Amino acid sequence: MTVHQPDPLDQGAGAILRQPGAVWATASAAVVAFMGIGLVDPILPSIATGLDASPSQVSLLFTSYFLITALAMLLTGFVSSRIGPRRTLLLGLALVVVFAALSGGSQSVPELVGFRAGWGLGNALFVSTSLAVIVGAASGGSAAAILLYESALGLGMACGPLLGALLGDLSWRYPFFGTAALMALGFLAISVFLKEQPRPARRVSLADPLRALGHRGLAATSAAAFLYNYAFFTVLAFTPFVLRMSPYRSGAVFFAWGVLLAVFSVLIAPRLQERLGSLRVLTLSLVLLAADLLLIGYGGHTAAIAGTVLSGALIGVNNTVFTELALGVSDAPRPVASAGYNFVRWFAAAAAPFLAPRVEEWTNARMPFVIAAVTALLGATVVRLRSADLDRLAHEKAAPHPAGSTPATPTPATRS
Other C-beta atoms within 10 Å of 413: how many? Predict the structure, then answer.
């Protein structure tokens, strides 16, 4: 069953842009938080040179970061329901400030990997809670809030590589110090503009996100997202070593990648969902991502650059649809559903940067992209095989109903 939902972009700019100061403060800090993900992309080769490390060793910067992020997702609801969302956001930001600064002062790869793990803990506390805060406090409904969150993600993904390139050209250490300074500003903005948010009626246990994954729809969404994220982070973490470009040029490539990610997640994905339905859009986008990964792996240098930039558009579409499915497919509270979903998918973000360089060492530079393409296709397969669970319960954007027909009324389970 698909349910017709009004597109917030068709309701005027106010549906997204007319938000309370607390929402803008949280979204702005989220931009910087997401910048931290792609920040190291253009400076990975520089870090390897500066610390005399191999690509597989440097890739552990992503692995430690996302492994701790995944595990910490089980803590976010537990912590937030006890100390409140505002204090959880501030705690997360404080940890990021401290560990980003320590990362900049690292003298070895093991030190840097360890500090990135601490950074991942802070980022998990902030990112998971910020989504719940934005959805809860935003005007214009949850659809507008999700698009605002995806806008922050896209802008952060675009600006992270750019900041990394500009500062990293001077020293690989400066991007870490720059992120610490920006997150400190985010800490101040949250402190000033965000009042304490209501706590859940009951405290969230550590097991609640795992119990939420017992829902067939959320389990299917999380499994598909795990497979997709392996492909996503193969592009993000491994491609810089394949392109072999200076920090400036690599930063420009990933800036263009991030711009497409932002545009397609906020402007294009909702239109496609309206015309085709979320599940068709997601399946098609995953198949196209698989084809694009093969282009990166088997094309020449120019084709690899074009394929990397193009992947931003497909990733943007996937991110928006997966987020909506995760928040709307089950009857679990949104923070709990989000924690369970992110717990599963971030493990793929930890695995891809770890495995891709090793696969290259064992075989060749093309095979990591072949494996990533296969995981994208497997993700599409999961969506199609479990479409009955997803389509029946998910918050769907359906094609317009024929003239004279009456749109179905969504049940509470279909609202995100």
Answer: 15
